[in-house]
Amino acid sequence: MTSAQVRAARGLLNWTVRDLAKRAGIHRNTVTNIETERYGGSADAIAAIRSALEAAGVEFIPENGGGAGVRLSRGKKNG
């Protein structure tokens, strides 16, 4: 999961940094620092972010020559 994927996933869900932080159970500064690549994040923080986004219906698309991405799973509109 890349910082760009986290930002894109929040955009798909129309979530603020605070929304993601609350759902992931981490501090909002941690989310901001991960998204801006100031901090890579602990394994626990990364796992919490990914779990929160996936629970809301985000699917992570691995890099396949065209870059990594995200999408909402079918039937999901917002978290």
| Strand residue content | 5-15%
Strand order of the largest sheet: 1-2
CATH architecture: Orthogonal Bundle
Largest sheet: 2 strands, antiparallel
Structural class category: mainly alpha
Number of domains: 1
Cα gyration radius (Å): 12 Å
SSE order in H/E notation? HHHHEE
Instruction: List how many beta strands DSSP finds.
Output: 2
Distance between the termini: 19 Å
Question: What's the short story on this structure?
Answer:
This protein has 79 residues and is mainly α. It is 51% helix and 10% strand. The protein is globular, with a radius of gyration of 12 Å.
What keywords describe this structure?
single chain, 79 residues, 434 Repressor (Amino-terminal Domain), two-stranded antiparallel sheet, 4 helices, 2 strands
